[in-house]
Amino acid sequence: MPCRRVPGPTRPPAGFTLIELMVAMLLGLIVIAGVASVFLANQRTYRTNQALGDVQDGSRIAFELLARDIRNAGLNPCNNGDRMGNVLNNSGTDWWANWSNAVHGYSGSQGDPATGGVFGTGVGQRVAGTDSMQVLGAVDGGMSVATDNEPAANFKLNDKTTNLQSGDIVIVCDPDHAVLVQISNYNNSNVTFVHNTGNAVNPGNCSKGLGYPSDCSSTNGNLYQFGANSQIAKLGAADWYVGNNPVGGRSLYRVALAAPDAKENVSLGTPQEMVRNVNGMVINYHARGGTAFVTASSIGNWAVVDAAQITLTLQSADQRAGTDTRPLVRSFTATTTVRNRVN
């Protein structure tokens, strides 16, 4: 009879010891920690890069907007801004009516008449220690004179336009000179505007005479007749500064000459927030014949300023974008020339 092997007693299945389990858990935690650290590092890098991109985009937009106004400062359609007459009643009181200061800056310690005060903490008010700059130039051009009837103070245009209305401040020019004047009445049906004296509009004109230099000693002082195809453009005036924004931060603001109101009065409009999270602005200027850029307080004659060097300090909207879990802050510098003041 064949022999059979008698099975021995059965043994329970083997398991992990406590030490083995603890080692396994430790290794698992190390792997998880490594994955988490890589994820967090990538997330922080992404947030930092995104914040840097936002700051750079903000600087590009700010410099582009600023450059448009600076390049056109003191420019009129005939490019003879050095021979500019001015018959506005407020030419000696309001900055936006004074063509002599087509470019004018204010350092961080100087008050700016366009901001309504020196400094403030309210929304739209200028931040202490930051520079500001005002610029004047022609906008919305392309209009021209058909006939000029003087001393009737009556211009007939070559073409109809919806860009003009009673109360607008305009620049009229020919090869001889240009003049700042306010439209006292505009008739779109026969394309005619009047530049009479009186109180029909505000600030109004001191004289009907549009010759150079201006003569406000009489109603018809220094009469001049502009020839056919003389150019017409509206006056553009703007002031740039850093102000307090509605969310408790700072932004780049622009306040500009507003369209005439219902009573045909002209004044500055409401300050507009242009670029958010601009914390600071420093502006230095180059004067013709100078060898360096200097502060606004060092400029004695603004008529010879031919370039502006602007440094903007911007902060990221993400308050934890930096490696120190604080906002990312960067400064950028750009230089812009005043086109009609360089050769």
Automatic annotation (TrEMBL):
The keyword Transmembrane applies. Coiled coil: none annotated. It holds the Pfam family N_methyl. The chain crosses the membrane at residues 21-41. Keywords: Membrane, Transmembrane, Transmembrane helix. The keyword Transmembrane applies. This is Prepilin-type N-terminal cleavage/methylation domain-containing protein.
